[in-house]
Amino acid sequence: MSDLPPRSSVKRWLVTTNHKDVGILYLLTSVFFLVAAGVLALLIRIQLLQSGGTILSGVGYNQVVTAHGFIMIFWFLSPFAFGFANYFVPLQIGADDLAFPRLNAMSYWLYLFSGVLVLGSFFQGATFMGGWTAYAPLNVPAYIPEFGEVGSFATIVALIAFVGSVTIGSVNFLTTIYRMRAKGLRMRDIPLFSISILVTVWMMLFAFAAYLAALIILSSDHLLHTSFFALETGSGPEATDSGSLLWTHLFWFFGHPEVYIVFFPALGALAEMVQTFAGRRLVGRKWFIISMALVGIQSFIVWMHHMFLTSINLEIKTVIMVTTVAISLPFDLMVFSLIYTMIKGKIRWKTPFLFSIGSLVIFIIGGITGVFLGAIVLDYSFRGTYWVVAHFHYVMASSAVILIGAVYYWYPKMTGKMYNEFLGKAHFVTSFIGFNMLYFPMFIVWETPRRVFHYDSGFTPFHLLATAGAFIFAGSFLIMFYNLFASLYSDRHVDESPWAYASSPEWAVSSPPPLDNFPGKPSFASGKLNFLDRAGTDGGAKSETATDGGVATGDETLAPPEEHADHASWWPIMVSSSVLFAGLGISGLSVSYAVWPFALAIPAFIGFLGVEGARQDGFALIHGIYVMVAFPLTVALLILFHLGIGIFEAVGNASPYFWVGLIGSVWGSYTLAGFGYESFEVPEPKMAEQWPFESVENTKLGMWAFIASDIIVFGAFVGAYIFTRFEYGWEAWWHIAEDPSAHTMAGQALEHHPVLPGLINTYLLLASSFTVVLALTAARHKGNYSLGPLTISSRQATLGFLGMTFMGAAGFLVNKGIEWVDLYLHQGWTFGVDVMSSTFYLTTGMHGLHVIIGMLVLLFLIARTYTGAYVGENEDAGTLEYFGLYWHFVDIVWLFLFPLFYIL
Amino acid sequence: MASTKTYTAIFVALMALSTTQAAVEWLGLLEENYWPILGVILVLSSLKAMAVAGWFMHLREEPRSVTYVALTGLVGVLALTAGASYSII
């Protein structure tokens, strides 16, 4: 199935799932965002030429500052690093590709389209204006100017889509690194860049989940007018202590690890470059790795050092100050390890090394000035000043500088051509001078207030200097772009490795590497990298390529075509594009007031499941049923909405957001159904190092990683509830809504907790969990079941149990619906009437959404089971098992929501 | 995979424990002794969660490393909730 078009074809780049192609797409796209956010940075610097500003209005400046932060951190730094990760991690660990290539392509397209959304938000009135930290209450509608509401919400939607991309990518890399290593490659022997990516994706998996929860809560405050971050009162919104603190907790629980998420891939690349150009193995390599892992863990217990000036108590501040100072210790070890490696080795002053040592200097300055901020007393003075701005640019931008070095380091590998060394060095010199001219003066005039363009006029010369530095720094990139572009067409060809002492496996294959990476099956079993005959992996070595010293003896690096080398697919880009349309539509909900295009997605999805199922598996009765059910469901929904709001008027006066939302939801339903049905087998490597997950299939490990991240998402919702409840007084909670005119749930609760609806739903969900297990048991059962005179095939039994699961879930939703209608409509206990109702509706609502998603997947599974999948000798019931994992997890969440929201 | 009999026993136990949680409230025990009973109810929920994870999600049969993946998420959330809640007490 070698239907992957050549690289000269545009189609190739739209359908590719190959990790190297995706890596290049990531790199190019992130450079585009670097330029975009860089231009914003220049605007900031021009504005700061004199106190009081020059060219931007106040509102314009706020937008520029905010978008600069968002785009640099999310759409440039991490994706730039993950461009390299995509390209090199499989090469470094001896894998043919990532574990889930098609999901990998989807990660990329989601990233791209989320970026389009965030850039588009500028043209939807105004983009978000509250800074990248988006502190409450400036992040809720009541505190956002009306013209900025749509664009602000579009930014939030873009961030949610971006988190989706990140989560899929994290699961993919985790599974790949644990399960796809070449034979003999122990975890500790993985090249440092790939190790740094492993630590990074672990942090990503958990940190971004907390951010996702925060963003969903924020969306709910925007769309449903819940009262998490500001209280919706009769006389207008009111900022609350608990709301503002809740945001900072959720945000920085993500935000601090995010700093290391951005920095670690660069650190890994730095270690590789230092090793290569010092011609020496990293000194204390083991301790370097342990330090990285330690920082990864510690990064989750330092977040409150961003909150020293909030009302949190002194005890916790002290604890956090200690953990913060402690986190600098592993970094010291890593820095000394790098320096000592340089001292012990013999340095080759190539461009990548210049960037490495330059960035190390920058990072040391950034690190030391950060420790100042970690001290509570000093932070009281430094907070909100340019000391902070200078510090984090020295840290964050040092990772950019390292990665620029990595561009020069890996450019010959990716293109097969050598860059121009003189221009590379010229780029380093100008960028290093520009960088320090730009950021160092900020330490001197640190009393300049952050995010404000009014400052002491005595500071003006320093700001002039910084602005000049900014232009030099920006200009230096032009040298690089020219160099890389011109070198592409030069005749400076390189073979496997242009670096004398490069030792990681990517340097043992040709440049650029062939589509399927290796000239044979890579193996480290003999202690060094060999390529074995692919036909029989137990056969002898076909060619042998030494990776130490670059004296490669492999003569043939162009691999024969492999049957699994490409998995060209249109679906990843199509699914992701629907997110763009749907996201645009959702962003305009506050002006289009039309939810029903999105509700239509459900019947549309059911109908498309029927259509796609018939196309892929051959028409069966079940497909007909799905299509037939989809129509009346659609009509019923339309009638419902007509009765509610009057469809003809609504459509007649519909805003463009309405139509874009409609397109997005229908297109999304179609593409998701198609994505699910596409036959897509990725053979798991038969011969691979898989500790510590030897007996866990790729998909199962991926599922568990996803569940671990979902634990954080739900946990953050529950945590938000517990935090808010503590803030209002745990036992006084039910008294919050003691409004005599409202017969609220709280009112009942004071009399008697409304346990019954929750208990019924617990029964229903537990039963549906039980039937999922039985469905799996039946699918793996050999032969028929006989119940007296009745004989039931295992397929029928599987179908029966899946059907019962669906019914259990449906019962759960109906019961929940009755409860909600009663509370919301009859008792007037609306979403935002108090914090109690907000936590109740959103947390149980998110759980309900999981149930709905599970039901849609169940419909897919039922159709597939009906047409012959999963059950029987030659069929793999794995998919049912993986779905079961999800479903049981949703069940477990409810086991805690039930007591927390109905009993206690 | 465990036997159908085991799954059924787990299911019955889960239903019984859920009923117990509700019964504790209906009997008015919670009003009398709020914090200890809160502890009991949450312990019961944890037991149920462990039963679902251990048997229905087959964690007992998987390598321990899979459990650690899930536990890492749990520890993260507990850190967030405990840290945030403690910070305002």
Specify the oligomeric state: heterodimer
- What's the average pLDDT of chain B? 94
As for the number of domains of chain B, it is 2
State the strand order across the main sheet of chain A: 3-4-5
Shape of chain B: flat
Structural class of chain B: mainly alpha
Classify the helix fraction of chain B into a percent range.
Answer: over 70%
> Which pair of protein chains has the largest interface, and what are the residue counts?
A-B, 74 and 50 residues
Q: Largest sheet of chain B, described in full? A: none
Number of domains as seen in the coordinates of chain A: 4
Q: What is the class of the largest domain in chain A in the CATH system?
A: Mainly Alpha
What Rg of chain A is obtained from the alpha carbons, in whole angstroms?
A: 28 Å
- Strands of chain A, count: 7
Model regions low in confidence, pLDDT < 50 over at least 5 residues of chain B: none
Summarize this, please?
Chain A: This is Cbb3-type cytochrome c oxidase subunit I. By secondary structure, chain A is mostly helical.
What structural keywords apply?
heterodimer; A: 904 residues; mainly alpha; Cytochrome C Oxidase, Chain A; 4 domains; 3-stranded antiparallel β-sheet; two-stranded antiparallel sheet; 27 helices; 66% helix; globular; B: 89 residues; 4 helices; cell membrane (chain B); transmembrane helix (chain B); transmembrane (chain B)
Could you give the topology of this structure?
The complex is a heterodimer of chains A (about 900) and B (about 90).
Chain A (H helix, E strand, L loop, with lengths): L9 H6 L3 H29 L10 H36 L7 H20 L28 H31 L12 H32 L6 E4 L2 E4 L1 H38 L6 H14 L15 H31 L6 H24 L1 H7 L3 H30 L5 H24 L15 H29 L32 E3 L6 E3 L8 E4 L26 H17 L1 H4 L3 H4 L1 H17 L3 H25 L1 H6 L3 H22 L20 H31 L16 H7 L3 H25 L5 E3 L2 E3 L1 H33 L8 H32 L11 H26 L1
Antiparallel strand pairs in A: 1-2, 3-4, 4-5, 6-7
Chain B lengths: L3 H23 L2 H4 L1 H23 L7 H24 L2
Subcellular location (chain A): Membrane
Keywords (chain A): Electron transport, Heme, Iron, Membrane, Metal-binding, Respiratory chain, Transmembrane, Transmembrane helix, Transport
Organism (chain A): Halovenus rubra
